[in-house]
Design a protein that fits this description.
This protein has a five-stranded mixed β-sheet. The chain is 49% helix and 10% strand. Bound molecules: protoporphyrin IX containing FE.
């Protein structure tokens, strides 16, 4: 089989290349994938089985995150520098200190306290589109929800939401003219978010509140605290990591329900299924397709030897359809239990900080949709994002009644 896991046209047309993934899992689960040497992009080991993705994710001593996580190094130098400073791109022990400081804001209790706010936001978004003949599910529901939730989490005032939403779109789609006016607009927006976070922190230091921002700025039990720069970078990471991922999970989940109407009917009959449905949606969609690591020593993945400095790319979308782990992996089943999906990462140091929050957003959204819009229907084709990194949907027209 011809293998090309980087061709963005394939992702834009079909979503993830599941035929190739299936073939690789069966025939070459750790596969040496071509790079593009004339553009300075090295070859990489494509890791497609669940067990191997988990292994690479958990062994951050052997597979470093600090040498650029995306497939190829397409970004300008200044942007790369900014990325380097973010927790996502750091290894222990540097990473460990920051992660333990931010974990305090994401305990199940802190996140649980947000449920009613999330429900209110879902109702408000639906109120705004009620009565319209067709709406774009992405623009009107899936995109604003996670961004408004992050604003709520930070305690940003409601009147700032549109501004932050706009910055986040500029950053997310820096190479997509439909979202953004270009990479420099993306960088300018990142600088705005950074400055916004800085001002927010100054405000909270002066007038502490019951919100995540205040909590993260306070010293922990050992007296450690995030410094100003670390706080600002963390807010920037939240806006990037918590936003597009959840947006695409919600839109991809909606599309999955349209393509499997019997699962929608199951949800309407039993809204308690919204909880397992959230995990099944993350498995099915795998909104983050891949992350890259760099081997820190000669080692093995499965039966394959890899060398120090080799690039290793884990494909979550493939691991989430591994027939050794999931019965009928090609079936979208909202009642699937157990569901050891690894769309939030394969475990280990970088496992998604926002996983409880994202699950709650998806559960509440689909509970509210099932309650208020049982006749929701697709009104036109979905348009997919042209990206091999994010499995995204740009537009999904729907009718509400
Ligand atoms: C990390 C997926 C939602 C914040 C990650 C990773 C993945 C991921 C694959 C990397 C895991 C690894 O390298 O092992 C997702 C998906 C989401 C989602 C699929 C939605 C369905 C969120 C939300 C937030 C968030 C809502 C916060 C509001 C983060 C952060 C990291 C991260 C801060 C970096 C953690 C670290 O480096 O220690 N996420 N995520 N994510 N995610 Fe999420």
């Amino acid at each position: 089989m011809d293998i090309n896991l980087v061709d963005k046209d394939v992702y834009a047309r079909d979503g993830a290349p599941h035929d190739q993934f299936r073939w690789l899992r069966a025939n070459a689960p750790v596969y040496l994938h071509e790079g593009e040497p004339d553009r300075g992009w090295p070859p990489f080991w494509a890791v497609t089985r669940h067990a191997d993705v988990v292994h690479v994710s958990r062994r951050s001593d052997l597979f470093s995150s600090s040498r650029r996580l995306a497939l190829f190094d397409e970004m300008p130098e200044e942007q790369r520098e900014l990325q380097r400073l973010m927790m996502l791109n750091q290894d222990p022990p540097e990473h460990t200190r920051r992660r333990s400081l931010v974990n305090r804001g994401f305990t199940p209790r802190m996140i649980g306290a947000l449920e009613q706010h999330i429900r209110d936001i879902c109702h408000q978004l639906l109120d705004e589109v009620t009565g319209l003949p067709t709406v774009d599910f992405v623009r009107d529901i899936a995109a604003p929800l996670p961004l408004y939730v992050i604003c709520e989490l930070l305690g940003a005032p409601v009147e700032d939401r549109d501004k932050i939403f706009n910055w986040s779109n500029q950053m997310i789609g820096a190479d997509d003219p439909e979202y953004s006016s270009g990479p420099s607009a993306g960088q300018a927006a990142a600088a705005e978010v950074y400055a916004y976070a800085n001002a927010l922190a100054a405000e909270r230091r002066e007038r502490p509140r019951e919100d995540l921002a205040t909590r993260l700025l306070l010293p922990d039990v050992t007296g450690e605290t995030l410094d100003e720069n670390e706080f600002d970078l963390f807010v920037l990471l939240l806006v990037v990591a918590g936003n597009e991922t959840t947006r695409n999970a919600a839109s991809g989940g909606m599309l999955a329900f349209f393509e499997h109407p019997e699962q929608w009917r199951r949800l309407l009959a039993d809204r308690a299924l919204a909880a397992p449905a959230a995990d099944e949606i993350v498995r099915w969609v795998s909104p983050v397709n891949l992350f890259r690591r760099t081997a820190t020593a000669d080692t093995v993945i499965g039966e394959q030897e890899v060398r120090e400095n080799d690039k290793v790319v884990v494909f979550y979308g493939s691991a989430n359809r591994d027939e050794d782990v999931f019965a009928d992996p090609e079936v979208f089943d909202i009642g699937r239990t157990p569901n050891p999906q690894i769309g939030f990462g394969g475990g280990g140091a970088h496992f998604c900080l926002g996983n409880h929050l994202a699950r709650m957003e998806l559960r509440v959204l689909f509970e509210v949709l099932a309650e208020r819009l049982p006749r929701l229907a697709q009104a036109g084709p979905a348009r997919r994002l042209r990206s091999n990194f994010i499995n995204g949907i740009k537009e999904l027209p729907v009718t509400l009644t």
